């Protein structure tokens, strides 16, 4: 077991019982406060631990990480130091925050310098994303979409049970939680029309996803096995893959999603390390037919992470519309990474691989409005009396996620995004 995950650990920092950020989590992010430049922070309770100041004060000196790394714009350089270094850093932070350790606990002046309220800082994109891939790994989601758009009797295409299907997305439009999302414009086609129209998307949707951040690259021409894959993953974030369903429907044949997806994807600011998620490993769905040898794996590779999506109208009350779980994924992250690299494709530190929409077996666990309202045929009633088939201008979509076991809750915080009208 990783020592920093011990459920018995307690911290001298105040942490509420339902906090996403107990001492067993310690996720990494990038923040600014006031006029200060970017720094690496770690979430603890309602606070951010400022690693740049902590290192300046000498608390991290044994790790011998240069000060400039803690003052980076992104986590990429820290991640590039390698898994033994991030592990040692998380371990050292865990030691400093333990209630039994007086080093920082009893230095009120230093505590004031290194602990800032999360509400008083600005969070930024945690990594520089060079490349982004979106998988399509929920069998329930692929079945629902196939049923609606193609043929209920052959909802899954013949390749789906053999290949972790994915497409290359766009990295430049991945934005941090809280960034407003402009409703996209594009080509759509009315039912029975023979020519498309141009205008704002009328079927704007979210996709409930999680993404992993690559923590170790592979050389072009080499592959990563399912056995080694988890050593190539730094951690995970919540991921909203905004989707314009009407644009998607017209454009996606034959090469897949393009403008329906690349206008924005939103991510949560804290990267929860795969180390912190170790206690929440669980078995995934049985894979039948048996995958090809390079996709076989040993042990439990899924993670039990509760997920929720809520919609909050402008000036209105939020309503939870979906409750799902990351454990439902048919293809796991190790298989996704093994598949992605099996042809020799080189992954780089900071790359993001999103899971695909995470739909579960029950209607309330579907991870998109497309499925929840069954293409608009079953609208969702909102607390203010209005209804939603898709996402309206002014709506904020909020996704949350946490894992819980043995009294420890490891959370991801939130990813939010408000939809603005098309220009
Ligand atoms: Mn997606």
Mean pLDDT: 97
The dominant shape is globular
Number of helices: 12
- Under CATH, the topology of the largest domain can be stated as Fumarylacetoacetate hydrolase, domain 2
Structure class: alpha+beta
Can you tell me the residue ranges where pLDDT is under 50 for at least 5 consecutive residues? none
Q: Radius of gyration over alpha carbons?
A: 22 Å
Largest pleated sheet? 8 strands, mixed
Listed once per kind, the bound small molecules are: manganese (II) ion
Quantity of strands, as a count: 26
| Total domains | 2
Approximately how much beta-strand content do the residues carry? 25-35%
Q: CATH superfamily membership of the largest domain, which one?
A: Fumarylacetoacetase-like, C-terminal domain
The portion of residues assigned to helices is 10-25%
CATH architecture of the largest domain: Alpha-Beta Complex
Terminal CA distance: 52 Å
CATH class group of the largest domain: Alpha Beta
Q: How does the SSE layout of this entry go?
A:
Elements: E1 28-32, E2 39-44, E3 47-50, H1 51-56, H2 67-70, H3 76-80, H4 83-97, H5 102-105, H6 108-114, E4 115-117, E5 122-124, E6 132-135, H7 139-149, E7 166-168, E8 174-176, E9 181-182, E10 185-188, E11 197-200, E12 204-205, E13 208-214, H8 226-229, E14 233-240, E15 243-244, H9 245-251, E16 265-267, E17 272-273, H10 274-277, E18 281-282, E19 302-303, E20 306-312, E21 319-325, H11 333-341, E22 352-354, H12 369-372, E23 380-381, E24 387-388, E25 396-405, E26 408-420
Parallel strand pairs: 6-22, 8-16, 9-26
Antiparallel strand pairs: 1-2, 1-5, 2-3, 3-4, 6-7, 10-11, 12-15, 13-14, 13-22, 14-16, 14-17, 18-19, 20-21, 20-25, 23-24, 25-26
The structure holds manganese (II) ion.
Manganese (II) ion (MN) binds at residues 134, 207, 209, 241, 356-357.
